[in-house]
Amino acid sequence: MGKNENRLRRAAKTRARIRKSETKRLTVHRTPRHIYAQINNEDGSRTLVSASTVQASIRDAVGNTGNISAAQAVGKALAEKALESGILVVAFDRSGYKYHGRVKALAEAAREVGLKF
Prior knowledge:
The protein is of the alpha+beta class. Helices cover about 45% and strands about 20% of the residues. It has helices at about 5-20, 55-60, 70-85, 100-115, and strands at about 25-30, 35-40, 45-50, 90-95.
């Protein structure tokens, strides 16, 4: 198995566990240049809130979009939007990525604003 296949296998296991818990899911996707985060409803059919470094407001604020400070800005923006929408508790789906670096920064920034997971 390749690196990406292993990541997708880990992600599938996590998503299966989250599906059983029937909570909203905060999903993270990262590329070398950008990081994306969204909150989906319980069955995954609809995106409720999203934020990414592609958005002009975040991109202009951080400058370089592929680093930890950009991930923190995305986490903060996503959590603020979620709280405005009345979403308080989510399950964190890191999509099989290791919990360090940009993924960890995004999660901790969202927690600081008040999102619980």
